[in-house]
Design goal:
- The protein is mainly β and about 190 residues long.
- It has a single domain (about 1-20, about 30-190), classed as Beta Barrel (Porin).
- About 10% of the residues lie in helices and about 60% in strands.
- The chain has 1 helix and 10 strands, in the order H-E-E-E-E-E-E-E-E-E-E.
- The chain has an 8-stranded antiparallel beta barrel.
- It is elongated.
Length: about 190
């Protein structure tokens, strides 16, 4: 399931990128850019994240991973149906996020000034959850139900192009700052062309 989602996200990124390769005719203020991003949601233990993005003149795509798992990397045993009694006494921990979230945001840019853009973004993120129990005698984690959830989120921010001397096909550096409901505070650095 997770491999299928990653393939779907990659194909979505490619499908959105191809039309955005059109020439920048008639729009002096817009520009193309590629970037790497970082994010941090200061909720609970804190959730860092990262990803990459691509922008045509007025549209863009960003693929991101958010480290939002409550028990990421922990050894979780699966209880076969009908064998719960072999686990012994346990405490229910409830439904918990197991791994981080992986998703894609589609972006719309407005260019009020040359080299300055404001954007809005929205997308879907994939999150694995499990119903967990902790055995009282051993402390081991046990999963009684496994599910996958799609989470919707969105946000906005500003992207600025800083012109530089031309290097290969790149003609500037892009800086971005914003906020996203799932990723939290976001920032990116990239190249424009």
């Amino acid at each position: 399931m997770k491999k299928n989602l990653i393939a779907l996200l990659a194909l979505s990124f490619l499908a959105m990128s191809l039309p955005a390769l059109a020439a920048n005719e008639g729009n002096e203020n817009g520009y193309h850019a590629v970037w790497l991003n970082g994010s941090y949601l200061p909720k609970g233990k804190g959730h860092p994240g990262g990803g990459f993005g691509f922008r045509g003149v007025n549209i863009g795509v960003e693929v991101s991973y958010i480290d939002s798992g409550d028990y990421a990397g922990d050894d979780i045993n699966v209880i076969p149906p009908g064998t719960e009694s072999f686990m012994g006494p346990s405490d229910s921990l409830g439904k918990k996020n197991i791994d981080g979230s992986l998703g894609v945001d589609f972006m719309l840019f407005l260019n009020p000034l040359k080299g300055v853009s404001v954007f809005a973004e929205g997308g879907l993120y994939y999150q694995e959850t499990q119903q967990l129990q902790r055995a009282q005698n051993t402390g081991k984690l046990w999963s009684t139900h496994h599910s996958y959830n799609a989470l919707g989120g969105g946000g906005g921010g500003i992207m600025v192009k800083i012109p530089t001397s031309e290097f290969l096909t790149f003609n500037g550096v892009s800086l971005q700052a914003g906020y996203h409901s799932l990723k939290g505070i976001t920032a990116s650095i990239g190249l424009t062309y």
